[in-house]
TrEMBL record:
This is tRNA N6-adenosine threonylcarbamoyltransferase. One of its GO terms (cellular component) is cytoplasm. Its EC number is 2.3.1.234. Belongs to the KAE1 / TsaD family. The keyword Chloroplast does not apply. Its cofactor is Fe(2+). It comes from Saezia sanguinis.
């Protein structure tokens, strides 16, 4: 079965096609992505209306590129899958509307996909795919969650952020440091030459008994340090790099410690890291080191599949079909879920 996947929840238009006839994981036959980063950079963040309009412009040509790569015609597509949420309402509507209209025209069924399930399952496309059950650390621009994953569609929330997401903490701190959007990768680059011990930044909820996170206070602490530096004279590139390194260290330490706590609590020996912040090298090396000492296996998506893409949506749909937990439907009415808990689907 050929499944076309459409992703349009935020600032990336992604399209991909998988073949569910290949086991144990559907084969990725083609994928194409357009990132809107450059367009939003001028505004310092995602402008929802511009995002929607750009998705409209990109989704059709990307679909044709993917079909060409996969050497398939539109008529050969068996199921059209799309991200129904969570994300920006207008952006989601573009992908949903396009997917439903395309499927209706082709007289093929549709399958609605949860964006976070796409992230969660994306490591199954890597050279070192995980096996169930595992703990998943989902760290994106909008979400920070620890889940126990027992199988496809079997997700138990262990803990989540009570305010900002880890990606948001990276982005907001980066903005304070004068870095362009999206700040996460920029801050990480700047942190490479900095000393993480130069500033003492808070690690909220680090020692709390639960598995929740809180990152909202971090940006205030970064702002306070920045103001102190500015009051003392011109801030040097070295000082900015130190502050970036200290910020990254604070976020990474909390993510690593809470992940280890979740593994201990569940007794599981496998961790999957997914979402944009999963591309962070400091997070990867510290998790690798801490997990190796405890004989815990860690799995990541390919770097290119950490941030939003269509492959993870086509894959999640394909895996759900293979596992028999979702049935594509001939129902072309579409309603998006800008806020949507993964366990609720
Ligand atoms: O998963 P994603 O592409 O989009 C959402 O679903 O939110 O994640 C985007 C987030 C942004 O906050 C971005 O700054 C962050 O992931 N990010 C990083 C890195 N690459 C992307 N944060 C830290 N270090 C990175 N290397
Ligand atoms: Zn995402």
């Amino acid at each position: 079965m050929y499944v076309l996947g459409i992703e349009s929840s935020c600032d990336e238009t992604g399209v991909a096609v998988v073949d569910t006839g290949v086991l144990p994981v559907p084969a990725l036959l083609g994928q194409a992505l357009h990132s809107q980063i450059q367009m939003h950079q001028a505004y310092g963040g995602v402008v929802p209306e511009l995002a929607s309009r750009d998705h409209i412009r990109r989704v059709v040509p990307l679909t044709h590129m993917v079909l060409e790569q996969a050497r398939l015609t539109l008529e050969q597509i068996d199921v059209v899958a799309f991200t129904q949420g969570p994300g920006l309402a207008g952006a989601l509507l573009v992908g949903s509307g396009y997917a439903c209209a395309l499927a209706a025209a082709l007289n093929k069924p549709v399958l609605r996909v949860h964006h976070l399930e796409g992230h969660l399952l994306s490591p199954f496309l890597s050279a070192d795919p995980p096996v169930f059950p595992f703990v998943a650390l989902l760290v994106s621009g909008g979400h920070t969650q620890l889940m126990q994953v027992n199988g496809i569609g079997q997700y138990v929330l262990l803990g989540e952020t009570i305010d900002d997401a880890a990606g948001e903490a990276f982005d907001k701190s980066a903005k304070l440091l004068g870095l362009p959007y999206p700040g996460g990768p920029e801050l990480a680059r700047m942190a490479q030459s900095g000393n993480p011990l130069a500033f003492d930044l808070p690690r909220p909820l680090l020692h709390s008994k639960d598995l929740n996170f809180s990152f909202a206070g971090l940006k205030t602490a970064v702002l306070t340090q920045q103001k102190k530096l500015e009051a003392a004279g011109e801030v040097s590139p070295e000082q900015r790099a130190d502050l970036a390194a200290a910020t990254q260290a604070a976020i990474v330490e909390v993510l690593v410690k809470k992940s280890l706590k979740a593994l201990k609590q569940t007794g599981l020996k496998r961790l999957v890291v997914a979402g944009g912040v999963g591309a962070n090298q400091a997070l990867r090396s510290q998790l690798n080191e801490a997990c190796a000492r405890r004989h815990i296996r860690v799995h990541y998506p390919e770097l290119s599949l950490c941030t939003d893409n269509g492959a993870m949506i086509a894959l999640a749909a394909g895996l759900r079909i293979q596992a028999g937990v979702a049935k594509p439907e001939f129902d072309y009415s579409f309603k998006v879920h800008p806020r949507w808990a993964l366990e609720m689907q």
